[in-house]
Design brief:
mainly beta, 10 strands, 0% helix
């Protein structure tokens, strides 16, 4: 059963020597599964307006992310693994490599905190280093 949650996302990344950070708060839904949980939320970022993101986290350290809307994507984040993913934008489709450095989950009272660090590459050329810190609390 999905439960209503408040989701806070801090997205930090470095690209071309420039550091960027963005923090967003949005509403979402959370459900426990046999081996982890599902977290789904509406994107609050202006560029991703109208997109819904779903994270399927397994306690083994694997995250499957699916975004639907004008930016469709399916990405896999698995510690110390590289996966090829497709990212569809209104301007076309991109194929990129995702190498996940670390995945951690910390249960919190009435929610949890999921953090993962990864790189994105195009044709094996590093495009950015990224960190996502997602905290969710039951409403």
């Amino acid at each position: 059963m999905m439960k209503k949650v408040l989701v806070t996302i801090t997205d930090s990344h470095c690209s071309d020597g420039e550091d960027y950070s963005l923090e967003l708060t949005t509403s979402g839904e959370y459900a426990e599964t046999e081996d982890g949980f599902i977290l789904a939320y509406d994107e609050a970022d202006e560029e991703l307006d109208g997109c819904m993101t779903e994270l399927r986290f397994s306690f083994g350290g694997r995250i499957a992310m699916r975004r639907v809307g004008k930016y469709n994507t399916e990405m896999v984040f698995e510690q110390q693994q590289r996966h090829i993913c497709y990212y569809t934008t209104p301007y076309g489709e991109l194929m990129m490599g995702i190498y996940t450095k670390s995945v951690t989950f910390e249960p919190l009272e009435n929610g949890g905190r999921l953090r993962f660090a990864y790189t994105i590459d195009f044709n094996n050329d590093l495009a950015s280093e990224n960190e996502l810190d997602i905290t969710f609390t039951l409403k």
